[in-house]
Write a structure and sequence with these properties.
Oligomer: heterodimer
Helix content of chain B: over 70%
Number of strands of chain A: 0
Shape of chain A: elongated
CATH topology of chain A: Helix Hairpins
Radius of gyration of chain B: 30 Å
Strand content of chain B: under 5%
Largest sheet of chain A: none
Number of strands of chain B: 2
Number of helices of chain B: 25
Distance between the termini of chain B: 85 Å
Order of helices and strands of chain A: HHH
Shape of chain B: globular
Radius of gyration of chain A: 17 Å
Chain lengths: 99, 627
Amino acid sequence: MTVTPYIGLGFVLFSIGLFGVLTRRNTVGILMAIELMLNASNIVLVAFSRMHGNLGGQLFAFFTITVTVAEVAVGLAIVIQVFRLKKTIHADEITLLKG
Amino acid sequence: MNQVQVLTLLVLLPPLISFAWNGVVIPWRRAGKPAAWLSILAILTSFVASLVLAKTVLASPGPYSWEWTWLPFQNFKPIIVGFYIDPLAALMLVVVTLVASMVQIYSLGYMSEEPAGSLGRYYTYHSLFSFAMLGLTASASLLQIYIFWELVGLCSYLLIGFWYQKPSAANAAVKAFWTTRLGDVGFALGIVVLWAHTGTFALPELFHKVEAGQIATSILALTMLLVFFGAMGKSAQFPLHIWLPDAMEGPTPVSALIHAATMVAAGVYLVARIFPLYSHAESVMTFIAYIGSFTAFFAATIALVQEDIKRVLAYSTISQLGYMMAALGVGSVMAGFFHLFTHAFFKALLFLAAGSVIHAMHTNDIWKMGRLAKPMKQTAIVFIIGTLALAGVPPFAGYFSKDEIIIKVVESGMVLPAIFALATVFLTAFYMFRVVFVVFFSHREPEGHPHESPAVMTGPMWFLAALSVVAGFLFKGLFEKFFGHAAEAMETAQEAATAASHVPGWLPILTLILALGGILLAYLIYQKEAISHERLRAQFRPVYVMLQKKYWMDDIAYFLYRRVLVGGLSVICGWFDRYIVDGIVNLVTWLTRKSGEILRLLQNGVVQDYLYGVIFGLILFILLGIF
């Protein structure tokens, strides 16, 4: 079994996600793009797990899914709070850290 | 510890203990009288101890020297402190303690109107001064001398400015401090350069080295000249004399002790102390002779027209100090130190008597006094004794010492100093008897109701008066015995060069005639008024004005201070500080601020822009890892 197509898929997904994180102005969109990147890594993990016959990679993938769920929950909560405060969810308008 | 060591400590410690006690125990000092008595008790103890010490040392002259390490160094010889007692130091200790005790007793009467608190302060300063002066006298190392030298300078400052509420007194104190400080810079440089070349401050070692010829002549001449600047400041030699007349703002007993008898003589003492070094630096000796004799003459001319009784005495002090320096300059420690010795007595006496007059009259202006011989008989008698001693009339003390100086100066073959020295004899007699006639005998009625001073003041005056009479012939032999040899050593060198220019036999008679001539002239002008002094004044108006203005020396000093130092040099330094030093500092802050402003733009608060940075960095690291 060749691992290359899976890695290629992972690479493409990761790039799309990164592009989304960098360019999306909508905070929810950014969260979704982050999901894409995480899932890209999951695919790569599972692919390598199969290649080496080692279940550790798959175990990691499940971990990632679990953590991602928590992350999305927290992230969305933050987005809601920010929206209440600033009346916007556009990332370039939330510049409280500006020096 | 042997006897000399114990006695030296007995001389030095009582004033220190008195100072410490009065200084620390504040209620005691504020009480006034207890502080005064403690201080007087201390100085009398010192006096008795110094007499015994002098007796011991004169019986077997030593020198006694003992020292201990003060600052040990890794690479240099350790710096020592210690005491060096020889006849010179022993006699100086007697002079200092004697005059100091007389002045402190006299002050009880003179300062009786002071509030208790400031009386305590007065005596505290006096104790400190006595300790510092005695310490200076007994020191075994140049560094130690320098420390005590500054301490006496501090006491002088404190006591001149004793009535610090008076602006003139406060200014005079600052002026005295500044002017002597100017000379002290030379002193400090001198001993440091000497140390750099010999590795030691210790007097015995330096004497030994110079005898063995281990110090290069050029270095010796340079350092001795620098040290002499310190002596010039302290002993009020031209052109650093300007502080001494102003120092008369202090209480009169202070003028008697510090600015006539002891501290101003410290410069003379210093040169006498390290005379073995000076005697190997002949060019400096010549310089000293010229400066000294010129100062003697110069100050005497100014004294002719002063109208403040204390200022006449102040200029007279400068003049006499000039004599002492001149004597040292022509190589005679004996003459110089002998004159220091006798001068301490009669000049302290004159100041105390003048203080008595001021105490009675509440003014310093001699033209407001007159015919005081009647109400103040005792003061008049002691003042005249002091004046005769100062004018150099036999058999009073000044005659012997001054004669000795003039003989030595003439013997040296230097023409100008000899003329100055002889002219000063005449001037001294004249200006002193001018004061005597105007204050004690003239026909004017004095203002107010002068009265004789209390016994606590006349007592010390009589004591000093007795010494002013007898000190000359009593102690001349002693001084010749102990200090003659240093002069001989010097003379043998000089005599070879000048082929023994012997003193003409008529010289003592000439000085006597000059002195009597001065007295006679003063008598004619101010007592008989055969020659009107107003007419004289009008006739020699330019000269009079010049003398009245003190040769504009004060104005020159003020100009140098105000225009050159404050108006010139400090403006340049100020500009440099403001624009160059501050400029660099400001440039640094400006750069920091500007770079901050630029870098701030990076932090715009947009999370995604930061992320670009992260990814860019990540790619950079990956590339670095690959290549």
